[in-house]
Amino acid sequence: MLLTFCLLSAACATGLACESISYSWLTTGQTSEEAFEDLNTANVTESLYSKTWRYDPSYGAVCNGYGTTSEQWLLLPIVDLRGVLSATLEFKHVINFANDMEKEQTLWVCNDYAGSVVAANWQQVIISDYPQGDNWKDWRTVRIELPEELLQNNILFAFCYKSDAEAEKQAAWEIKDVKLNSTCDIHATPVSLPELGEGRLKVCAQNLENYYWNYDKTDRTRTSHYGYTDDEGRAEKTRKIVNAMLMADADVYAFCEVEADPFVLQQLADSMNKYAEADYYTYAADGISYVEDSYDNHLKSGFIYRNDKVKTHGGSFPASSAFYYRETMRLQSFEELTTGSRFTLSMNHFKSGSGDSNITARATNASQLLSSLTSQPHQKAILVMGDMNAQIDESSLQQLVEAGYEEQLLRYDEYAYSYCYYGTEELIDHSFANKEMRKYVTGAGVFHICTACGSPGSKNEDYRYSDHDPYLVAFSLPSATGIDGTEAASNRTGAGKVMENGVIYIIRNGQRYTVLGIAVGK
Question: CA-CA distance, 217 to 89, in Å (whole number)?
Answer without folding.
Answer: 42
